[in-house]
Amino acid sequence: MLAVMIAGALCFSACAGLSRPDPPHVTVVGMEPAQGEGLEARLLLKLRVQNPNEAPIAYNGIYVELRVLDKSFASGVSSESGTVPAFGETVIGVPVSVSVMGILSQAIGLMGGKSVDRLDYALHGKLNTTTGGAVRFSSQGELALPATAP
To answer: What is residue 13's predicted lDDT score, i.e. its pLDDT?
Structure first.
């Protein structure tokens, strides 16, 4: 009986030591136009990735999906590799595709007669780690739209 209790205690303490790291905090910090083809627009989405953990995150790929007004707006992948330092941050550029139909749909959704200078977004994705797994993330925020002339 004592052996079972000791084994249980050891198992419990081992499981506590294997806690999963916190997901990275990822925000959109910029967008730049890129070369598109046909009925798609391309953007370079700049993401600030913050690592709230005591171990660095070595990555060798990233996938993102950007939703605007609760609709899929853009998605993309990059084989960029690097490291997000422990308790540090880095900016990663990801080329994304936006269909012209998606842009038109978003524009029609905005036609409400009022001026819009910010849009809510949701971002989902994953960083592929060099250890063979993936670190998933999601965040939301606001995109500032460029000011238009009166």
So the answer is: 47
Domain that holds residue 92: 21-143
Report if residue 9 sits inside a domain: no
The count of structural domains within the chain is: 1
Please check whether residue 35 lies inside any domain of the structure: yes
Does the pLDDT value for residue 123 go beyond 80? yes
For 37-54, give one letter per residue: b (16+ CB within 10 A) or e. Answer: eeeebbbebebebebebe
| CATH of residue 33 | 2.60.40.1820
